[in-house]
Amino acid sequence: MTRGKRIYVLDTNVLMHDPTSLFRFEEHDVFIPMVVLEELDAAKKGQSEVSRNARQVSRFINELIEQDRTRRIDQGLDLRLPQGLRLDRSAEVGRLHFQTKVADAAANGRKRGVPDNLILASVIALRDAHPDVPVVLVTKDINLRIKASIFDIAAEDYENDRALDDFSLLYAGHNELPADFWDRHPELRSWSERGHTFYEVALGKDEDWHAHQFLYLPGENEIELRVLRVANGKATLQIVDDYRSGSHTVWGISARNREQNFALNALMDPEVDFVTLLGTAGTGKTLLALAAGLAQVMDQQRYREIIMTRATVSVGEDIGFLPGTEEEKMTPWMGALTDNLEVLTSPQEGGAWGRAATNDLLASRIKIRSMNFMRGRTFLNRYVIIDEAQNLTPKQMKTLITRAGPGCKMVCLGNVEQIDTPYLTETTSGLTYAVDRFKNWEHSAHLTLRRGERSRLADFASEVL
User: Fold this and answer.
1) Average pLDDT, the chain
2) Most buried of the four, 149, 218, 373, 427, by CB within 10 Å?
3) Helix axis angle, 335-344 to 285-294, nearest 10°
4) Is the dihedral of CA 107, 108, 112, 118 positive or negative?
């Protein structure tokens, strides 16, 4: 081992969560216990995301062995980035080491044969062999970190996959303007075009705005604006459309609050190809996305059909045991779609016959698809809704978004307070990752919806329970 470096011992769950974690420790050395290799081997069979990641780790290790044939494996392998893998890292690389000696897992009262105890034993043996080098166990298993602290072993969570350090710093998509906004910008230019009012303002020091960010000024001079573009220190703003009035609705749905009005503006804009709506239960994410989709498919004929999918927990597991076609297999997961369609397909005239005819017409334009079979597909002129996106990993999110073809609009919905996928958190969810990475793109928009609109009972329950 090289002196002056730290040694990071990786648990199996870290590698299966992020196969590129091997290369995320810059100039420091990485150590893999033998039991981790055995668990990777046991997990490699299958079509789940975990199995695919286990196979990818094995391929990475094999590639490192192939590119360093002159050195024996017990001397360590240089952690050079494999071809095609782009990561931010320093020029200096560490080495990958493997456990080559058996460690006593039963020491200090630990139960023999338990994988966690075997990992702890290998860490203790490694620490004893290199007393001058800090040894750190990296695991996403909280209980293993607790056990490590009992034996005075430094243990950390794997944090290199975090989109941001603190979830409270996530881009919200809308900002309140200061009361003296107009006084701060006496030089602003305004004009009207195609029934819309526009402003051009010079950006101040505190005005870090992004394209399709929404701004509002409450009070007597209340105004709601959208940032159309930011260039050369100036921002072009547009007064948003008001979808709160009964005469200006989207498929019969009107916005009940400011945030929903902002969301409908983003969903109905053909210049916005990617929309993310984040909010707690009852904020109207699915209803708004469906209403905007139906208006643009049925009325404006901007898109051919609506494709709706969602993350089924566990994502990637086989749904083949469910009866019927792909769409019928997904039906149990699509309760949100059914509930919202009942709101959207209530014709004023025609009674039960009119409702049945409307449902049949919409069924021909709304397709339910499984996330399991998305690879290799391309969506042309489709309006794609991805529900429960908080349960996606960044890799799965990339797989879905890259399915978009010409004329496609993608809408991601989710609530990070309801993450069900193991080892995903608010800061590592694929939805958080997408919001943070797309905020600077001129054809994307994000809204965080905070106000529930289901019922007074639901609102009170969310506050007190």
Assistant:
1) 85
2) 427
3) 60
4) negative
* pLDDT tens for each residue of 40-66: 999 998 877 888 899 999 999 999 988
- Give the model's pLDDT for residue 221: 76
CA distance 107 to 462: 49
Q: Count other C-beta atoms under 10 Å from residue 134's C-beta.
A: 12
Interval 101-110: pLDDT, tens: 887 766 655 6
Cβ proximity of 436 and 444 under 8 Å: no
Q: Which residues contact 5 (CB under 8 A, 6 or more apart)?
A: 27, 28, 29, 94, 133
In the chain, which segments carry CATH 3.40.50.1010?
Answer: 7-156
What distance in Å separates the CA atoms of residue 465 and residue 460, rounded to the nearest whole number?
Answer: 8
| C-alpha dihedral, 458 to 460 to 463 to 465, nearest 10° | -80
With tokens 């494709």, the residue in question is 307
Which CATH superfamily does the domain covering 256-464 fall into? P-loop containing nucleotide triphosphate hydrolases (3.40.50.300)
Three-state DSSP state, 445:
strand
Q: Is the domain defined by 7-156 classed in CATH 3.40.50.1010?
A: yes
Cβ neighbors of 276 (< 8 A, separation 6 or more) are 389, 411, 412, 413, 414, 431, 434, 435, 438, 444, 445, 446, 447
pTM of the complete model: 0.81
User: Can you say whether residue 162 is alpha, beta or left, with left for phi > 0 and alpha for psi between -120 and 50 degrees?
Assistant: beta
pLDDT at position 349: 46
User: Tokens at residue 11, please?
Assistant: 């648990």
| Amino acid identity, position 315 | V
Please say whether the beta carbons of 367 and 306 come within 8 A.
yes
Rounded Cα distance between 95 and 272, Å, is 45
Helix axes 258-267, 285-294, angle to 10 degrees: 40
How far is C-alpha 387 from the geometric centre of its chain's CA atoms?
A: 11
Cβ proximity of 449 and 277 under 8 Å:
yes
